[in-house]
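Name: Glucose-1-phosphate thymidylyltransferase
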Amino acid sequence: MKGILLAGGSGTRLYPMARGISKHLMPIYDKPMVYYPLATLMGAGINEILIITTAEDRAAFERLLGDGAQFGCRFEYAVQAQPNGIAEAFVVGEEFIGDDAVALILGDNLFYGDDFGGVARPDGGVVFAYPVADARRYGVVEFDAGQQVLGIEEKPVEPRSNFAVVGLYFYDNDVVEIAKALTPSPRGEVEITDVNREYLRRGKLRAEKVAQGAVWLDTGTIESLADASDFVRVLENRTGLKVGCVEEVAWRQGFISDDDLRLLAEPLRNSGYGEYLLALLDRPSMVRR
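Structure predicted for Glucose-1-phosphate thymidylyltransferase:
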C-alpha cells in the first residue's frame, strides 16, 4: 500500500503566521506539524509516501525530510498548483499510486493512541469516525443499528450523528478513476465526501470508529494548533514518551536498524531529541504508539 500526505493549501486560517511558512512546517510543541501525520502513515506500515505540497514550499519539505532513506522509506514530492480539494490528491498522485491501494492523510491531522495497522488492502474504502461536540463543522457519518454506514454529509446543518470523518482514508485502486470522474462542488473543489459517497453507492464503504481513548486533533486553526502543542507537551512531559517521533516509528516498524537509529540520534544530542532516541536502544520495551 502507498501513502499520500496532503500538505498543500495556503493556510489562511493561520495568517499571519502562515504567510512566510507552510503551516505544515510550523511546530507542534517539539516537532514540525508534518511529523505527526507522517508518523501515522509509517505506523500503519506504509513506507512509500508521496508528499503533496505547493510549488513555493516543496524545497522546504525536501530539505526537512529528504528522500526518506534515513527512515527506511521512499518519499516522493508533487505539487498541487491550487487548493482544488482533498480528492485531487489522487489525480496528482496517479502515477505514484500505480496499481496499488492507497492511504491518504491530511497534513494538519494529529492522531494518538491508534496505529491503524489493521487496514491492509481494502476492498473499497475505509474511513474513520470520531465523536465530536459540534458535528456541524465536519463531514459526518451516519450508522445504522448494525454499525453499517447509511450516509455521509459534509458540514450538515442538522447532523444525523456526532461522528466526524477524520482526515485519514484508505482506498483500493479504484479511487483514482473515481476522483478523476468527479465534478467540482459549488465551492470549486473536488470533495473527498463525494469519493466516499461513490464507494457507499457501490456498497464498498466501511467506517471504523477510532479506538476508544485515542485522540484526534485537527490543527488547522490558531486555537487548535495551541491546543495540540499543549496536548503533546503535557503527554510527553508526563510519560517520558514522544508523540509523532518518526525516527522511533521507523525503528519500531523495522524500517531501520539499531545502528541506523543511532546514526540519526547522534547529531541531535544537543536538543535532547537525540538523547531520547538513544535511550530507546536501552529501553526497547517502551510502549509503542
